[in-house]
Amino acid sequence: MKKQCALLALVSIFSAPLQAHPLDDAGIWVYDGARLGAKTPPTMVTQSTTTARPATDAPSGAPATFFMTMFPENGERRDAPDAPAQSAADAEEGANPKDLRHAWTAALGYRRDRLDFNIAGSGGAPNVLSELEWETEMAEFRLNGDWMAANGFTIAGELAYASGFSGKVRDSDYMYNGRQGEFSRSYSKPHGSTESRFALGLGWRIMPHSRVGVTPMAGYAYQEQDLRSRHGRQVVSDFGFGVPLGPIHGLDSHYRPRWHGPWLGLRLDAHLGKRFDLRFGLKQQWYRYRAEADWNLRSNFEHPVSFRHHGNSSGWQAEIGALWRLSAQSAITFTLDRSEQRLRNGTDRTFLSSGESTKTRLNGVNWDSWAGALGWRLDF
Fold first, then answer.
1. Which of 223, 253, 104 is nearest to 162 (CA)?
2. Handedness of CA 127, 132, 133, 139 (dihedral sign)
3. What is the spatial distance between Cα 309 and Cα 253, in angstroms, rounded to a whole number?
4. What would the pLDDT profile of 214-273 be if each residue is shown by its tens digit?
5. pLDDT per residue over 146-190, tens digit each?
């Protein structure tokens, strides 16, 4: 026993300062890189024989740590738990798995939206009477929050606001079925159009502390747009329509669609290294659709609500994101997403200045969007 103690003392002199940690009345020598240069000598622990082994599972770049294998008097081998290595892994992840982890991401990006709708004439003829299409380029700001408990319970939320700065609007009217006999067409600008979104989801991450996690989710989303038509120009005026070709002075019409309803989704998170993460998400959405419009130059329409649209839509959203961690608490993010909504067989109700209203078929509403955003994330 004296020879063993002498050998351990010799190892401590040539390696580095060692600490003694009690473990079930036995002892363990631990090399602690943080205590290099410490003047206090290690405490000898008797009644055990120890050999050093490196912590092979410690993250690259972490302080060198050695663990001791102990051989008590009865000859039974016992290994100390890798608690320091676990702590280093937690630091690498930037969170303590025993606590509630949450992160906030603020991002700026570019969004390109396309929305069109068309209605039938009174009694269904022509099958397409009027059709409008907006193509809008927008600057967008997003704020995302993520919370996850140790058992994998997850909450995810998003707020977003976008403002249009470019694009075009087309408004066409037809005399006959199949978009034949176009008697009016105008183009305008969607300058000043806006879009806002809110979404909240709940889920449960499978294997919450693994490097690859799958999270089934369900939630609710609300989206509102204000699509503008300004700086118009009439390019087709036929069949005695009577509108002169050229600029449309004073045009400032609004179309305000609202989408809201539940969604189901799946999110995949992959931790690919110390600094790099990937995320992929997919949602199926079922929305209730409602829109109001104000055609400001139509004297035969009511104002500020000239007509309303109602219906149900379905669609999907796909998202892929990358994260580059600058530290345990901050990271740069980049996200791409694609969305689509389709409505069929809705209702159009037009309100006339005479006090009457007419009802016809809203054939469809189609909304397509894609966006990219660069952000800054903080983990707590």
1. 223
2. negative
3. 16
4. 999 999 999 999 999 999 999 999 988 778 999 999 999 999 999 999 999 999 999 998
5. 999 989 999 999 999 999 999 999 999 999 999 999 999 999 999
Can you point out the beta strands (E) in 120-245?
Answer: 130-148, 153-176, 180-189, 194-204, 212-237
- CB distance 108 to 141 below 8 Å: yes
Cα→Cα distances 221→45, 195, 244, 310, 319, Å: 62, 14, 43, 18, 15
Give residue for tokens 């034949």. 180
CATH 2.40.128.90: which residues of the chain?
Answer: 100-379
Residue 44 token pair: 């000898």
Look at the domain 100-379 and name its fold: Lipocalin (2.40.128)
Among 306, 297, 295, 312, residue whose Cα is nearest residue 365: 312
Nearest 5°: CA angle at 268, between 264 and 270? 165
CB proximity list for 368: less than 8 A, separation 6 or greater:
113, 114, 115, 339, 340
Distance CA 183, CA 269 (A): 53
Instruction: Please report where in the chains the tokens 């839509």 appear, as a residue.
Output: 313
